[in-house]
Design goal:
The protein is of the alpha/beta class and about 325 residues long. It is about 30% helix and about 15% strand. It contains eleven helices and twelve strands. The strands form two sheets. It has a six-stranded parallel sheet, with helices on both faces. The protein has a six-stranded parallel sheet with strand order 9-8-7-10-11-12, with helices on both faces. Helix 1 (about 10-30) links the parallel strand 1 (about 5) and strand 2. It is globular and about 60 Å long.
Length: about 325
């Protein structure tokens, strides 16, 4: 039995975009042991995953370096046949390079990739709109094939049972927050949109506990009884389950967009400072992109976004027209 380890300790959405490796490795090697290393706080995203043998967790917030070497000790003891490092940062490069695995495979942008058994070119932009999931699958193409697998999450039956109480009427979800300010559609824009949504749909505001204040600002400004805050009240997998039942899910270029892709849920993704050509766009069968429909000299301003608009005007968000969102609203 082969033993594989996948490493992705970045943000929630990055973990979702690494799940096609799990799906494809299992399809080609159904008897293999597949483990996954992620950061503490993200483990509930893969809880109960049918193809994962063990989740290894790195606590980055407390004693970060000490915990990294504790994880490395476990990995060295496990003696994996192959390690697939989806990240491009030094810390996971250390884990990969000194893992004692039979083979180590990662991207050439990792600063320690010269220690890897095999390094794969990772290219964003450059005139090639390659999705991140396809870039990630390149890591295992030599032992599988060039077929494409989608991200996938596995909410439990209990997760679907929990969200059933919210599904008594037709509804949409809005996930208004993002880690990055310039990837977040402004609250005033969400408010203008929600205020004009015809009655008859419940509107659920999703996000984590830290997003509750933003969601309350939106809800109170809309002054509608059908706008309800679920931010901080659902787990990752419960949120994904709820999105799979929605008529439409409105999201930023952020983790909830990838939840929708993983559940093949209908999605409208609003792009502010970033662009779909970076390769992180939605993959659902029913998907829409909303972005500024005219050229802007400063857009895109960066791959991940910034804590504030570098040009101080944030036109890439404020000049998106409300009618663009309404075109995707199921009525």
């Amino acid at each position: 039995m082969q033993k594989f380890l996948i490493i992705q300790t970045a943000f929630i959405g990055d973990v979702v975009l690494a799940t096609p490796l799990i799906e494809k490795l299992h399809a080609f090697f159904p008897e293999a042991q597949i483990d996954f290393l992620l950061r503490k706080g993200n483990e509930k995203l893969l809880t109960g995953h049918p193809y994962i043998h063990e989740l290894l967790i790195w606590d980055k917030k407390k004693n970060k370096q000490r915990n990294l070497f504790r994880v490395l000790a476990v990995i060295r003891k496990n003696r994996y046949d192959k390690i697939y490092n989806v990240q491009r940062f030094l810390a996971t490069g250390i884990v990969t390079a000194f893992s004692r695995a039979g083979e180590t495979i990662g991207f050439d942008k990792n600063p320690l990739s010269f220690f890897f058994t095999k390094k794969i070119k990772h290219q964003v932009g450059g005139g090639q709109a390659i999705h991140e999931t396809i870039r990630n699958l390149e890591l295992i193409r030599d032992i599988t094939d060039d077929s494409v697998y989608r991200p996938k999450l596995y909410p439990a039956l209990s997760d679907f049972d929990f969200i059933n109480t919210f599904c008594t009427r037709k509804f949409i979800t809005v996930s208004p927050a993002s880690v990055w300010f310039t990837k977040q559609f402004p609250a005033s824009q969400w408010i203008s949109f929600i205020k004009e949504i015809p009655r008859g749909l419940d509107i659920y505001l999703l996000g984590g506990p830290d997003d509750s204040l933003l969601c309350e600002t939106i809800r109170s400004s809309c002054d509608r009884a059908d706008v309800k805050i679920l931010a901080g009240k659902l787990s990752f997998l419960q949120s994904a389950a709820l999105m799979s039942r929605a008529e439409m899910n409105y999201v930023n270029d952020s983790a909830p967009m990838h939840f929708a892709s993983a559940m093949n849920a209908p999605v409208t993704a609003v792009y502010c400072s970033t662009v779909p050509d970076f390769g992180f766009g939605p993959l659902s069968d029913i998907r829409h992109i909303v972005e500024l429909d005219k050229p802007l000299y400063c857009r895109p301003c960066g791959l991940h976004g910034y804590s504030k608009c570098p040009e101080k005007h944030f036109k890439c968000a404020f000049e998106i027209r409300q009618e663009q969102l309404f075109r995707t609203l199921p009525l």
